[in-house]
Automatic annotation (TrEMBL):
It holds the Pfam family HTH_3. The keyword Iron does not apply. This is Helix-turn-helix transcriptional regulator. Residues 13-67 form the HTH cro/C1-type domain.
Length: 81
């Protein structure tokens, strides 16, 4: 079993946003955030707070765990050369 440090947060925000025909800016406004924040979340460069995650889930009418999930992180292959 992987340690917690090896877990990575993934999300389906881009997929849900496209399904609901929302731009990053539209979603950002709807949750009181910015387009840049949505972009960072979608790329996995920013882990949103619980509050932001719940707001996003509410906009899409989906459970938060359907949009955000913890998965096993990828191990570095640099040591195996």
């Amino acid at each position: 079993m992987k340690k917690r440090e090896d877990m990575k947060l993934q999300n389906r925000v881009r997929e849900f946003r496209a399904k609901h025909r929302l731009s990053q800016g539209d979603l950002g406004k709807a949750i009181g955030s910015s387009r840049q924040t949505i972009s960072l979340i979608e790329r996995g460069d920013y882990a949103p707070s619980i509050v932001l995650s719940l707001k996003i889930a509410q906009i899409f009418g989906a459970p938060v765990e359907e949009i955000f999930m913890l998965v096993e992180g990828e191990e570095d292959d640099e040591d195996e050369e």
